[in-house]
# Entry
Amino acid sequence: MEAIVKLRAVSKDYGQGAVVVHALRGVDLEIPRGSFAALAGPSGSGKSTLLNILGGLDRPSSGTIQVDGQEVTRLGRAELARLRLRKIGFVFQAYNLLPVLTAYENAEYVLLMQGVPAAERRRRVLELLGQVGLEGLERRFPRELSGGQQQRVAIARAIAAEPALVLADEPTANVDSATGEALLDLMARLNQERGVTFLFSTHDRAVMRRARRLIRLKDGAVAYDGPAEAVDEADGVR
# Structure
C-alpha cells in the first residue's frame, strides 16, 4: 500500500555544546495511506516532537521526511504553511478552538482559508457536524459545549478540508473514558468510511488497543512497531 508518510534517519536535537537533548534518534518509519496508527511511549520519548515534525511545525536536525509525496525538509516557511493547509489536519489535546467562533464557524475556518465556495463549505460542514453528533449545536460557542463536544468540533475541523493525514496529539486526554471511547468510535468510522489516515500520540491504552498499528518510542528511537494487539498492561507492549 502507498505510504503517505516516509521518514528516513530522522533525528532532532535541542541545545548545543555539552547540553544536548536527543529528542529523536535516527527514526525510520513509513505510514501507509488509510492507516489508523498510534505513537506510544513515556513522556520525553519523542512522540510530540515527531508529530510536530511531521506537521511541519518543527524541523528535524537531520534526515528526510515525505508527506503525501512531498519532501517536507526542503520546504520554506510559506510552502510549509500551504502543506499544512492542504494536506494535514490537526487534532490537539487542548482542542484549540477559536472561542469567538461557533462550532460551525470553527469547522468552516480551514475551508475559508482554502477559498472553498460558500455552498460547498456549508454542505461539508453541516454534513460533518451531523456525522460527529453535533447536529443542532452548530451555533454554539466552545464555552457552551462539553469537552467531548469541543473535541468533536476539532475532529470535524481537522477533516473538513479532506486532508491526506490527520495528526492527533493525545485526543482523549481531557475527556472521561466513556467520551474517549465515543471519540475513538467516531475516528475509526471516519477512517473506515472516508479513508482518513490517522496518526495518534497517546498515553491512553484504550487508544493503543483500538489502533491497528502501534509504534512505541523510547528515548527518541523506535522500540516497537507492530500489531496493537501486543499492548501489555505493564510496559505498553509485550
Q: What stands out?
A: Residues 85 and 114 are 7 Å apart (CA to CA). The mean pLDDT is 89. Residues 177-194 form the longest helix (18 residues).
